[in-house]
Amino acid sequence: MTTEPSSYHRRVAEQKRAAIMEAATELFLETGYDGTSLARIAESAGVSRATLFKQFSTKAALFDAIVTDYWRPTEGGGHPEPAPGDLRAGLTAIGNGYVDLLTRPGMVSLYRIVIAEAPRFPELGRAQFDLGKMPYFSSVRRYLEAERDAGTARFDDADTAATQFLGMIADYVLWPRMLLVDWSPSRASMERAVAEAVATMEARYGA
Asked: Under DSSP, is residue 13 helix (H, G, I), strand (E, B) or coil?
């Protein structure tokens, strides 16, 4: 007799996990990380405490899961690493994918939670950095290194190049949203921002 959970039970577990993470994100934003208890999250998610503790043994583990989920690309899985050989096409694909990531529902809320609570809970900032930003950043750095190896780009420091590219996009797409609640640039304007960032990278690093 198999002990593996059935597809139905796996689906139910996934649904409960998603409900827990959604409820936790809303409560973290509303009452802060410190002011939100696992018991309240369970109540808001409509699950038992036993179910929540089975999924997440600590509040920190739950927050880590939220960060990892938000930084995971929504389509295709993995992090974007186009095949090298065409710097403009590759950077454009990465740039537009980064826009999709930064504008997905909840990303701004996640940043606000981290910024508000990091002075008292520095582990939240570390989770955002280590589990979210750095894996994505590393994928962009690897792509740029592959372009350099292919002879389509020239630079000495891949970290600097990746930081510059992602920073040019985030400065228009993400950071104004942190302060301006009505900041909602059109898709066309964000694509223009990506195109300008790509043109800048080509001018500086294109071989």
From this structure: helix
- Contact criterion met (CB below 8 Å) for 159 and 141: yes
Residue 105's alpha-carbon distances to 51, 77, 139, 146, in angstroms, are: 26, 18, 22, 32
> Could you tell me the residue range of the domain that residue 121 belongs to?
70-205
Render pLDDT for 141-164 as a digit per residue (tens, 0 to 9): 999 999 999 999 999 999 999 999
Q: What are the tokens at 189?
A: 């304007």
pTM: 0.84
In a domain, 63, yes or no: no
Q: Which two three-digit tokens encode residue 162?
A: 């990746």
Taking the alpha carbons at both ends of the chain, their separation in whole angstroms is: 62
48: phi then psi, degrees, rounded to nearest 5: -75, 160
Q: Which two tokens stand for residue 16?
A: 């409960």
Higher pLDDT, 125 or 75: 125
Name the token pair of 29: 């934003």
CATH of the domain at 24: 1.10.10.60
